[in-house]
């Protein structure tokens, strides 16, 4: 039987009736945009994270846009960020006229490299936008120290890491604000697009609230140039059902990841250099939105995984500094070699709550099959 990269139906098992009841509650209420469901979800997330303010918005991308605008990013301002992430991170900067300054990533974790961040700071730098990639946190101590010393803000992209912690502090609560995505495939996923900005700063939170409603502090009185970034009540109601399960789901993902580690080690794969799991960031917990390995012959592995019915994905095949949409900010091959090499080697393996021991063993069998072919092709 095929093994999916992600099986949302298994995650929802046992929740169908509660989700249907929540959807029916919204239908009967007649309040479909913002309203009580959104306000309740915001309060529940704020309590779950231990932060003062949580503001629901229409997507993770819009969380980044509204947070950056609330931080008063102006045209020409520079924001240092990673090239190894989804395009939304840089897209949000560009949409406000800012300049994404890409610096290379750490070779073992593929998280933003603080040493390179420090070297990239200029008089035009306004902030740092780290991405908590695949479920673990960038080095918020070192990045935070740089920000304080240079008068910069930090905006955390937590789209893949809700529930991860940096030295005991929830991801998204360490910087000026944190931006979350509830895209269906995330650890906490809606039934469509949804996002959130969380912050300790009441002024910033209020600005996000105004911006999500076309910049209106009160209806038809528009003080800021905002947009339609409102969270649907239906998505909030579904997420309220799922939020109390998130910690258990994250623990289940962690257990599956540890088992992959052991299976790869016991199979002798980790030490061969042919299939190597990404490193773990010291100081961070990991919620394993993805379980990513690096493969020397990645393209050959992709072909074999597809042939054997093993779900997989490449996050990410092209670093952001080489994407055509970067326009004048596009770099050249060789500019950021760590990210570029990673883009040629990474592959995500199936991981989700409910993934079985047998399915994991089958995945590793295929990795062993690939390693055998790779070995015959030479060192």
Mean pLDDT rating: 95
When the domains are counted, the total is 2
Low-confidence stretches: 375-379
Number of helices: 13
- The total count of strands amounts to 14
Structural class of the secondary structure composition?
A: alpha/beta
Let me know the largest β-sheet. 7 strands, mixed
Query: What share of the residues does DSSP label as strand, in percent?
Result: 5-15%
Predict the CATH topology of the largest domain: Aspartate Aminotransferase, domain 2
Q: Output the radius of gyration.
A: 21 Å
- Which strand order does the major sheet show? 1-9-8-5-4-2-3
CATH class of the largest domain: Alpha Beta
Q: Helicity range of the residues?
A: 25-40%
Q: Provide the CATH superfamily of the largest domain.
A: Type I PLP-dependent aspartate aminotransferase-like (Major domain)
Q: What is the helix/strand order?
A: HHHEHEHEHEHEEEEEHEEHHEEHHEH
* Architecture (CATH level 2) name of the largest domain: 3-Layer(aba) Sandwich
**What global shape is seen?**
globular
How far apart are the termini? 33 Å
Please render the helix and strand layout as text.
Layout: H1 8-12, H2 16-29, H3 35-49, E1 53-57, H4 60-70, E2 78-81, H5 88-95, E3 99-102, H6 114-120, E4 125-129, H7 140-150, E5 153-157, E6 165-166, E7 169-170, E8 177-181, E9 195-199, H8 202-212, E10 216-218, E11 221-222, H9 233-242, H10 246-266, E12 275-277, E13 291-295, H11 298-307, H12 337-343, E14 346-349, H13 357-376
Parallel strand pairs: 2-3, 2-4, 4-5, 5-8
Antiparallel strand pairs: 1-9, 6-7, 8-9, 10-11, 12-13, 13-14
């Amino acid at each position: 039987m095929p093994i999916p990269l992600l099986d949302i139906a298994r995650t929802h098992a046992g929740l169908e009736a509660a989700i249907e009841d929540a959807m029916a509650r919204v239908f009967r209420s007649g309040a479909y945009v913002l309203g009580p469901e959104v306000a309740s979800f915001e309060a529940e997330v704020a309590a779950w994270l231990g932060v003062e303010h949580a503001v629901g918005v229409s997507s993770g991308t819009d969380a980044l846009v509204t947070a950056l605008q609330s931080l008063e990013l102006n045209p020409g301002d520079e924001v240092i960020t990673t090239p190894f992430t989804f395009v939304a991170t840089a897209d949000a900067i560009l949409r406000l006229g800012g300049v994404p300054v890409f610096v290379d990533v750490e070779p073992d974790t593929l998280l933003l490299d603080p040493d390179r961040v420090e070297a990239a700071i200029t008089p035009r730098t306004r902030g740092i936008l780290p991405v908590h990639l695949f479920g673990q946190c960038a080095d918020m101590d070192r990045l935070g120290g740089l920000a304080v010393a240079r008068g910069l803000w930090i905006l955390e992209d937590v789209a893949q890491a809700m529930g991860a912690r940096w030295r005991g502090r929830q991801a998204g609560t360490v910087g000026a604000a944190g931006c979350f995505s509830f895209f269906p495939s995330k650890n906490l996923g809606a039934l469509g697009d949804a996002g959130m900005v969380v912050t300790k700063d009441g002024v910033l939170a209020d600005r996000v609230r105004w911006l999500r409603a076309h910049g209106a502090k009160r209806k038809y009185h528009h003080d800021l140039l905002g947009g339609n970034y409102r969270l649907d009540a239906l998505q909030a109601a579904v997420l309220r059902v799922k939020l109390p399960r998130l910690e258990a789901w994250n623990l289940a993902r962690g257990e599956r990841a540890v088992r992959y580690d052991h299976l790869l080690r016991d199979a002798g794969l980790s030490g061969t250099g042919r299939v190597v799991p990404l490193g773990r960031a010291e100081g961070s917990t990991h919620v394993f939105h993805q379980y990513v390995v690096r493969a020397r012959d990645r393209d050959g592995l992709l072909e074999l995984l597809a042939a054997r019915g093993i779900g997989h994905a490449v996050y990410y095949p092209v670093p952001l500094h080489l994407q055509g949409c970067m326009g004048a900010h596009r770099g050249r091959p060789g500019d950021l070699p760590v990210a570029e090499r990673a883009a040629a080697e990474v592959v995500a393996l199936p991981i989700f709550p409910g993934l079985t021991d047998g399915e994991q063993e089958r995945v590793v069998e295929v990795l062993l099959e690939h390693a055998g072919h790779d070995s015959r092709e030479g060192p």
